[in-house]
Amino acid sequence: MNQNALQKRQELIQKRVDAGFVSEKLPQIADMEIKMVYYRRSIYSAEDKLLMLRTVKVTPDSHAYFEMQCMTKECEGSFNLTRVIRKLVKDRKKRGTGNIVCTHKAEGLLPRHASVDYEIKIKFNRAKKK
Ligand SMILES: [Zn+2]
Q1: Which residues form the domain of 39?
Q2: How far is the CA of 119 from the centre of ligand 1 (A)?
Q3: Where do the DSSP E strands lie in 23-128?
């Protein structure tokens, strides 16, 4: 790993640490599942290509960090689900779906070169009685 990549990785670890834990930041969550389908756009094909499926399990012990790096090698962009998750929790919604597109621009990258379909399922802790 070169120096730059190493530094990037350390920054990422630091970001996760800084984000704190789900138990502190989103104590309403008992359990959460984030299903993601990554698509990549190619100049060789009219249709976006399915790149990979990923499921992330989130527990109160997890870091409250929901930013996923773009899967495109040359890209430094990311997909950030933090706002989506905050909104679901605020509205106490058990399920949310949507699509996010990597908007990072750089030479050699197609516009909308990568996107993610997500499905988020949340189990909430019972509201405390007052
Ligand atoms: Zn990207």
Answers
A1: 3-124
A2: 20
A3: 29-40, 49-58, 67-69, 78-80, 95-101, 114-124
